[in-house]
């Protein structure tokens, strides 16, 4: 007689858990604060650190390449090469150097995000109308003022576009990072794969999707708030 799968001891089982239903809302609610919420916060923290660090590096690189065009090709080549490396392979390459640590995860995430961020930021800077730059120069603005008050502001739509794609992508890769560090929603998913009880797997996966959708929505709203001239043009 074959052994039947055994549901791990999750405490006093409800009727839903006892019959091994596809998703038990009562179990999900009972374990929200001690299981799902901490993992969601960790997932968000890992994502924010990587996206912010990658964005800062990409802005610096894009600005340099915008003013020194000969740098664009080598920087683009390096970042595009890093982007072609599968995330798990990048983690494996870094583990011998930085170990199974958050530093390994964040380093890989930052390196992986650079291509999309760098490309979209540089494209946005290059698409700024030359007339706007000449007008700012004629008004006596310094090179730094032109960059911060004209070029970067007009490049905001492209910046937001790059941030949206990168943020959603990073949220997905952070789930894979559970193979390196026991953090985030990916950790719950990985552990749930070892059990026939599906609620933890489905709940963690749904939260990852919800986090990606929420982050994308926040960035869309931020883009609209930062580009009031675009709303005025559409209304006209």
Automatic annotation (TrEMBL):
Keyword vocabulary terms for this entry: Membrane, Transmembrane, Transmembrane helix, Transport
UniProt-listed CDD domains: TM_PBP2
GO terms of biological process kind: glycine betaine transport; transmembrane transport
ABC transmembrane type-1 domain mapped to chain residues: 40-222
Cellular compartment(s): Cell membrane; Membrane
Family matches, as SUPFAM superfamilies: MetI-like
Signal peptide: none
PANTHER family linked to this entry: GLYCINE BETAINE/L-PROLINE TRANSPORT SYSTEM PERMEASE PROTEIN PROW, OSMOPROTECTANT IMPORT PERMEASE PROTEIN OSMW
Family: Belongs to the binding-protein-dependent transport system permease family.
Protein name: ABC transmembrane type-1 domain-containing protein
């Amino acid at each position: 007689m074959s052994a039947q799968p055994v549901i791990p001891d999750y405490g006093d089982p409800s009727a839903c858990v006892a019959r091994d239903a596809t998703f038990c809302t009562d179990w999900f609610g009972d374990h929200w604060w001690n299981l799902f919420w901490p993992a969601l916060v960790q997932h968000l923290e890992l994502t924010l650190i990587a996206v912010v660090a990658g964005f800062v590096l990409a802005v610096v690189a894009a600005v340099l390449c915008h003013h020194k065009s000969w740098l664009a090709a080598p920087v683009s080549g390096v970042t595009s090469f890093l982007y072609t490396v599968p995330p798990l392979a990048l983690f494996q390459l870094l583990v011998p150097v930085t170990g199974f640590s958050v530093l390994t995860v964040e380093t890989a995430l930052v390196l992986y995000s650079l291509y999309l961020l760098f490309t979209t930021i540089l494209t946005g800077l290059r698409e700024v109308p030359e007339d706007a730059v000449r007008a700012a120069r004629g008004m006596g603005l310094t090179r730094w003022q032109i960059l911060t008050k004209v070029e970067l502001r007009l490049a905001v739509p492209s910046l937001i576009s790059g941030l949206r794609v990168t943020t959603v992508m990073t949220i997905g890769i952070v789930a894979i990072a559970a193979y390196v560090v026991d953090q985030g929603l990916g950790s719950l998913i990985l552990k749930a794969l070892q059990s026939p009880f599906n609620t933890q797997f489905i709940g963690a996966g749904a939260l990852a999707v919800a986090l990606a959708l929420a982050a994308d929505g926040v960035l869309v709203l931020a883009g609209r708030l930062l580009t009031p001239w675009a709303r005025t043009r559409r209304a006209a």
